[in-house]
Amino acid sequence: MQSNKLNAKDLINVGIYTAIYLVVFFMIGMLNAIPVLYPLTYFIAPVVTGIPFMLFLTKVDKFGMVSIMGVILAVFWYLMGYTYIPTITYILAGVLSDLVFGFGK
Questions:
Q1: How many CB atoms are closer than 10 A to CB 55?
Q2: pTM above the 0.85 mark?
Q3: d(C-alpha 84, C-alpha 72), whole Å
């Protein structure tokens, strides 16, 4: 019997996959140092960062895991110097995606 509560394993999965997502995002961001590749990063970044996120979604089996990832990313970007607009967007997108995934099960 599976519980709907988040446990330590779920939170560890969220932390690991969020860290992998950020590392991959920053590696792709390094392509901006090459001027010719700058316009291509808008196409490459979603595809490449989508890989760890899709792997994360294979581990998601409880409501709230994507929201937690969204909050972690929102706080990270806010601390990196972004404004409050991406912070609000990350949090709302995380909650919305959890609602969509919840209805899909």
A1: 13
A2: yes
A3: 14
Q: Which residue has the tokens 């919840």?
A: 102
Q: Please list, in sequence order, all residues whose beta carbon lies within 8 angstroms of the beta carbon of residue 91, skipping any fewer than 6 positions away.
A: 67, 70, 71, 74
Query: Tens-of-pLDDT digits for all 105 residues of the chain?
Result: 567 888 999 999 999 999 999 999 999 989 888 998 888 888 999 999 999 999 999 988 888 999 999 999 999 999 999 999 999 999 999 999 999 988 876
- Tally of CA atoms within 13 A in the half-sphere of 70 that contains its CB: 19
Q: Determine the distance from the C-alpha atom of residue 41 to the mean position of all C-alpha atoms in its chain, rounded to a whole number.
A: 17
Query: For tokens 């919305």, what's the residue?
Result: 96
CB 93 within 8 A of CB 70: yes
Crossing angle for the helix pair 41-59 and 8-29, to the nearest 10 degrees: 170
